[in-house]
Amino acid sequence: MSTIDELHELGTSTWLDDLSRERITSGNLAELIEKKSIVGVTTNPAIFAKAMTAGTAYDEQINELKAAGTAVEDAVYAMSIDDVRDACDIFAEEFSRSGGEDGRVSIEVDPRISADREATLIQARELWSKVDRPNVMIKIPATDESLPAISDALAEGISVNVTLIFSVGRYLEVIAAYREGIQRAADTGKDVSKIFSVASFFVSRMDTEVDKRLEEIGTDEALTLRGKAGIANARLAYTEFLRGFGKDSLPEGANVQRPLWASTGVKNPEYPQTMYVTELAGPQTVNTMPENTLDAVLADGGLHGDTLSESADDAHEVFAALREAGVDLDDVVSVLETEGVEKFVTAWSDLLESMGSRL
After folding, report:
1. Mean pLDDT of the chain
2. Is 194 designated active site?
3. Catalytically annotated residue among 35, 50, 130, 139
4. pTM of this prediction?
5. Residues 139-153: pLDDT tens digits?
6. Given 98, 103, 119, 272, which residue has the most CB atoms within 10 angstroms?
């Protein structure tokens, strides 16, 4: 049994945090499913920006869109939607086998509208309709303004990947938004068993920001806390997941909203490549990872069982120590939430500019 298969036995689904036309047409994505047990895919504006500006895989479609006089933004979405639809088809067997939990492919709404509830809902509907596959998930960021749009989309039967979550406080709001959306769907007679959602909690970015502050503080006590905040943060979120989705917490037939660990590639080369996987393994979770992290997990084989279910006490101790060391965790979260949206806006804008020069 491979390490990835062991993760699945523990209850952690492994998704690939990457997608490109080249992966699809070359057979690489199908090979990752067969040989490395990948059971889903996540995308974001940065991933598509990298894919569409490298190589020649999109050249033919770009030329067709140019000949048709397609607007730049429409062209980028046309290419993204085609990739996501094709990936959904490749994962159709896994989607069926897992009863809809896995075999999922995510596509994100325009990050520039993250502060506009109505625009976010309109685009979520459009993407859901245009991809036209039951295993697509629409990614909506967990900003203050987008939380109601998440409930709105779920209420209409749209499966949602809630992204850019950096704090337990925000995660509690996401759980509430999910509950509201699913209840509204049930109240209007929708089959809630067909509606799925994940809550994407970003891990390594927390360590990057906290570690920077710990190094500025510079004490021995502070430096020993480097590389601990991200895992502790996710473990505290998992505790809230267990509390928030207890028995009879949802309408009959509804699915729990699984936590998804995102940003799980290590940013600090001093840290083990697999730390955000092995330390966040446990029931009813998803870990989406870049391929180099996937390969490291397969090569390392260093799992040590369920590292989530009994982890709350240690996580609380880490957070208490961080506060005692002088780290303003509320400010950390504020910075990360702002930067998270800004990074995707920048990637999206760069992609539009790059495609604009070719259309």
Report:
1. 96
2. no
3. 139
4. 0.96
5. 999 999 999 999 999
6. 103
